[in-house]
Amino acid sequence: MSEYSRKVPIVALRGMAVLPGMQIHFDVNRQISIEAIENAMENDQLVLLLTQKDPDTETPGQEDLFSVGTIALVKQIIKLPGNVIRVLVTGTDRAKLDSIVEEEPFLMGEVAIIEKKEEDFTESEKKAMLRGLKDILEVYFNENPKIGKEVMKVLSKIKEVGELIDQIAINLPLSLDDKQMLLEAEDTFTRYEKIMVVLTEEIDIIRIRKDLQLKVKEKVDKNQKEYILREQLKLIREELGEGGGVADADNYMAAAERLKAPQEVKDKIIKEIERFKSVSGNSSEGAVIRGYIETLLALPWDKVSEDKKDILQAENILEKEHYGLEKVKERILEFLAVRVLTKKGESPILCLVGPPGTGKTSIAHSVAKALNKEYVRISLGGVRDEAEIRGHRRTYVGAMPGRIITGLKNAGVKNPLMLLDEIDKVSSDYKGDTSAALLEVLDSEQNKRFVDHYVEIAVDLSEVLFIATANSLQGIPKPLLDRMEIIEVSSYTENEKFHIAKKHLLPKQIVRNGLTSKQLSVSDKALAKIISGYTKEAGVRNLERRLGAICRKAAKEIVSSQVPKVRVNEKNLEKFLGKERYSFQQANEKDEIGIVRGLAWTSVGGDTLQIEVNVMPGKGSFELTGQLGDVMKESARAGISYIRSVSGDYGIAADYFEKNDIHIHIPEGAVPKDGPSAGITMATAMLSAITKKAVRADTAMTGEITLRGRVLPIGGLKEKILAAKAAHMKQVLVPLQNKKDIEEIAAEILEGIELKYVDSMAEVLKYAFA
After folding, report:
1. Which residues form the Lon proteolytic domain (predicted)?
2. Nearest CA to 93 among 71, 117, 111, 66?
3. Which neighbouring-strand residues pair with 757?
4. CA 660, CA 643: separation in Å to the nearest integer?
5. Using CA atoms, how far apart are residues 685 and 647, in angstroms rounded to an integer?
6. Is 703 left (phi over 0), alpha (psi -120 to 50) or beta?
7. What is the pLDDT at residue 242?
């Protein structure tokens, strides 16, 4: 092959290759390509067509194009809308791009045209190559009859090897890579070898595809055959009276007709029953549909229970089963009164918040009993998968409804009392936010049409009486908290614990341990000593355990020693429960300098903190010990800043804080402590140590301090006053803004305690210093 060079406009092709002898239409929309074609039309109508290596390249350079292409004669140009032209070209010669000499306004290249030259084949070689090509073409057309017979007729008439190879590449649906490979082949023999390999591979691919299609068809035919046989078998079984699946479907249909439900629900069930009829009873799909139909039939769509309308009877039940908890009882009776007047009324969503063991869960059961409602308890502690609330989609293996729908199904009515226990313990992970799923459940505007992922039909939850329980509001997200009515269940007083133990816990433990009231008696003084010396809690769980321990030891004594009755009193209590475990730190006997009694709230009730301050010569350091939290440390710093700001009022030297070290310590160093309510206590203790003024030993205090000495309100006041009373404090200082909280505390708690309301540190010091 000889070559000669010339300059030719270049058109870059995307996703196609043009071969010599090929006539083809293609559209051009890139400006550089349009310019190249227009230049060719102005001159000799010749362009070089080169294929892009990457079709997505917008402005190709020499490195983006294959080096070998085809010189083509532009025969026709048609302008189309959108700045697009349609070009008709005929490939004439192979050509090789040496270099691009111009890039603007179009590509112009120095091109070496590869002239055709007949190979030096013998006549026998030529015949052999032609015969080989036609034989493989015959096989190809037999395997791929979609290619028209006219193509085979045209190709069979060609007598030149090179021309036949080009026409094969032009007329057969070869890949772009294969066409480019044939274009770049240096001589006819090389192109012959390559086209033979390409055709052989194409024949293999067509045969493999046919085999796969045949296998798929056989499988489909087999499934159709099995379906027909199953239908025939079903008919045979029905004739023999053995059509279990059909019988089940008929039973479901009858149950659907009897079901009290909206028409859309019935239509959905009937549709699923029809599907169940057409599916094999033994198939996995049949089992899924069966479970779904049974769930829909078991749900109480329009089935309700009749609430009790006797408020006095409901009040008697609540009073009999629970001592105290006045707010909860009052709210439930209000709900019942509204229901009596309106015949329906929206069910409230109550959230009982309080320490463990205060009867939150058990009162929900009593409320259900008082209102004659079905009771369903759903424990949310540790639940972190959203599907536990909303259910799983039926596409999953083992899918089932969420806990809300399951609880409704178990209740059998659409208006049960549903207890959401430990709602502050729900958590989130990658499977979804459980608390977010509860938002729809607990929103009275949204839960009228609650959609469970498994059921897929809107369920009305508006008539469910939801009662939630939580130990703390801190663990409940604000949007969820906003949907509930919060009722605080505070710690029990010793008097309340005494009555609960006497009326409820002791009789319950006596029966549980196989005893009778004639076989065991516990004196009132013994009960009071168990409460004060053997338990330290906000609720009554440990108290019940201690009474259970007494009952077990009494049972052993009755069985082993054959005694008719066991009497437990204050004197022999140690025999049953051992030494006393707890004792409140009592008020100090004398007034002291730098020691002040603070009040604290804990998860098991209130407690007192004895804050100690020492001042010693040093370099002005300020030390805090006793495992204090960040908030408590900040309160101490605010206190010392206040003292320094008023040091002149108390005769403190200007350089006092530079020459002395101050050390604050709160005993029980192993127990973490935090919160702002010890602010005024620490400030009083520091000022006492600095001024050497003693603080009254019978005084306890609580309140947050500011830099200017103002006293801010705090929480947990009832528990703190109970702790002060247990420690025999006579005077308790509380923030003035907490006066409204004091008014809600029972008179028996405040008996024997003198409350002083303080609004500033000046008032605190007036009452605290002896």
Report:
1. 590-770
2. 71
3. 734
4. 14
5. 15
6. left
7. 46
Rounded alpha-carbon distances, angstroms, from residue 108 to 47, 180, 422, 596: 9, 21, 79, 97
494-577 folds as Helicase, Ruva Protein; domain 3 (1.10.8)
What does the domain layout of the chain look like in residue ranges?
Answer: 3-114, 244-298, 311-488, 494-577, 592-768
Could you give the C-alpha distances from 13 to 50, 52, 86, 727, in angstroms and in order?
6, 6, 13, 95
Spatial distance between the Cα atoms of 112 and 98, rounded to a whole number of angstroms? 7
Binding site for ATP, by residue number, is 354-361
Which residue of the set 329, 414, 425, 720 is catalytic? Answer: 720
Our answer to whether residue 67 is catalytic in this structure is no
- Dihedrals phi, psi of 453, to nearest 5 degrees: -60, -30
For the residues of 100-144, what is the DSSP string, one character each? EEE-SSS-EEEEEEE--------HHHHHHHHHHHHHHHHHHHHH-
Residue with tokens 């300059």: 7
Distance of CA 321 to the CA centre of its chain: 38
Strand partners, 760: 710
Q: Quick one: tokens of 517? A: 């009231």
Percent above pLDDT 90 for the chain: 9
User: Hey, which residues does 399 pair with through a beta bridge?
Assistant: none
pLDDT tens-digit map of 582-623:
766 666 778 889 999 988 877 666 778 889 999 999 988 999
The token duo for 348 is 């409230």
Q: Which CATH class is domain 3-114?
A: mainly beta
Cβ 19 vs Cβ 166: under 8 Å:
yes
Residue 107 in tokens: 């590509």
Residue 303 annotated to the active site? no
The binding site consists of: 354-361
| Tokens, residue 272 | 């699923």
Of 677, 688, 718, 725, catalytic: 677
Q: Is the pLDDT of residue 225 over 60?
A: yes
Distance CA 345, CA 284 (A): 45
pTM for this entry: 0.59
